[in-house]
Amino acid sequence: MKVLVVNCGSSSVKYTLFETDNEKKTAWGIVECIGLPEAYYKRQSVGRDERKDSVKVSDHTQAVELVIKELLDKENGSIQSIDEISVVGHRIVHGGEKFSKPVMVNEDVKAGLRECFSIAPLHTPAHYAGIVAVEKMLPGIPSVLVFDTAFHQTMPDYAYMYALPYEYYEKDHIRRYGFHGTSHNYVSQRAALMLGKPLSELKLITAHLGNGSSITAIEHGKVIDTSMGFTPLQGVVMGTRCGDIDPAIIVYLLENYPEYKDPSALNILMNRKSGLMGISGLSGDMRTIVKAVAAGNKKAKLAFDMLCYSIKKYISSYIGALNGADAVVFTAGIGENSPTVREQICADLQALGIEIDVEENSRPLNSERYISTPGSKVKVMIIPTNEELMIAREAKKVLTNE
User: What does residue 65 show for φ and ψ, rounded to 5 degrees?
Assistant: First the structure.
């Protein structure tokens, strides 16, 4: 069975074609900068070199059309007919309270998704455009929506509610939703396999660390808490996002800086100009920050320390919430590839049962492995995430009623 996974951003379409019998990807690529003069299309398939071309695409429909034509190309394609695709799996960032599990697309589902536009205005309209484009280009091929928020729907009410007047939850559904759920779900399943125990018997803390980062506490396979909230802005310090701040700071900025009377300007400040970028003044990319720290840049060192400290606090608090943990799992770009970040986060946590093997942690390997000492009560692991494969699995399950 072939599953096409589609991830539509505000100005991009990313895709992966899987053969689910062996869970191997056969083709993958991305169309970026949709609607801009410098748009380009980068793609690759098994046994072929990567190709990159400048393209002119004005919307998601044209981008999806490019992808389908490439997949069907007689010389470079991976399929002979669209009928070889059994189902399309779409990554959806926010499902609100309406969607707690993957669903097959129909008109009612699309109507429900449109109602989520207001709580994820940067993401959901783009996802919706991608769904419509796929329906146009792949008529008759079923689509399944897989939500980043769905994995977190097991949180108890005392964990997901905010202490605002209850009416704002009833009227506007203001609550903690959590994100990166597909990634947290995937690595928790892989961790259970590595530990040789059923997920239902484990207590795990998964740390998805990238430009956007979130920490999740998982008890017996169910999320009990996660660091991101109503939006992906809450939680730890991130690449360009501020993470947790005193809400009164927003009131202060509104009262004292006229430019922030426009809510969109304040949103840009907190989401795109803060975090590592805002503190260092250099970049939101951890690789740049680490190099600057090594060169003696004090602001870069401050940014680095703030990020690591905020993650350490969340991990520590979740060990308390879980009453102990079997493992801490690092994943995503920073979590998988930055030994300095992992080392600083895990330093001085011996009282909580975490002891990292500095030498093993420093090895330049991008593979599943333990980086804790043999005597560490809490195992520390690196597990590369694979959100696309998880989406393919979930789409197949919905299609076949598994």
Answer: -60, -40
